[in-house]
Amino acid sequence: MAEPVAHPITVAIERRIDPSRTAEATSWMQAGTDLAAGFPGFLGSGWVRAGEGSDLWYMLYRFRDIATLEGWEDSPQRAWWLDSGRSFAHEVRVERRTGIEGWFDAPFATQIESRPAGAAGAPGGGEPPRTGPIQQPIPAAPPRWKQAVTIWLGFFPTNLLASWLLGFIPGFGEWPLIARVLLATLLLTPVMTYAVLPWVTRVLRPWLQRAA
Fold it and tell me: How many CB atoms lie within 10 A of CB 164?
């Protein structure tokens, strides 16, 4: 029997940080990123601040599947790390993004890069060397109506084509309704999941990211 396909999980965490402890929080957030990177299934992590004067900080990390994610979340290393920041960091909201929600949120969630000291900048001018994360804003997830339109734009032509093709099956129109729907959904679900929706969201990305 084939093993079930693993679906990456992205976790988004919103925290409030004591503004007077910004320097400590910066090191603390980076330490959490470095710790997570040492665990199996780790696919990436990073953090940003909502704004220079804001106490809202956002952290995202992504793992190969739910099993590897829980390996990190249930680890004594993460428990120690969380405990070390309790005096200045307070979780406000935690979201796990996968499935349809992941198609919209995860690709747009953040662009975070870490550079070691001296990696940026060049002799004689240019950008000075930087360390730690390069902070960039997190674009908001598209509004629900845009998500609905995007799904419909993928589903309608796919369903239309499938209905036309299934009509060539001898006697298909005489099958019981439940059998016809069962076959159609069994065929269309993987096509929508692995081909159509990823392609449609990629094509519509500028519109999805644009303010409504």
Answer: 9
CA dihedral 84, 87, 92, 95 (to 10 degrees): 0
CA distance readout (Å), 86 to 15, 37, 91, 112, 158? 11, 21, 9, 24, 50
Coil, helix or strand for 3? Answer: coil
Other Cβ atoms closer than 10 A to 85: 19
Average pLDDT value over all residues in the chain: 77
pTM of the predicted structure, to 2 decimals: 0.49
Identify whether the C-beta of residue 201 lies closer than 8 Å to the C-beta of residue 104.
yes
* pLDDT for position 58: 87
Give every CB contact of residue 21 below 8 A, 6+ residues apart in sequence. 87, 88
Q: Kindly report the number of other CB atoms within 10 A of residue 144's CB atom.
A: 9
pLDDT (average), residues 208-212: 71
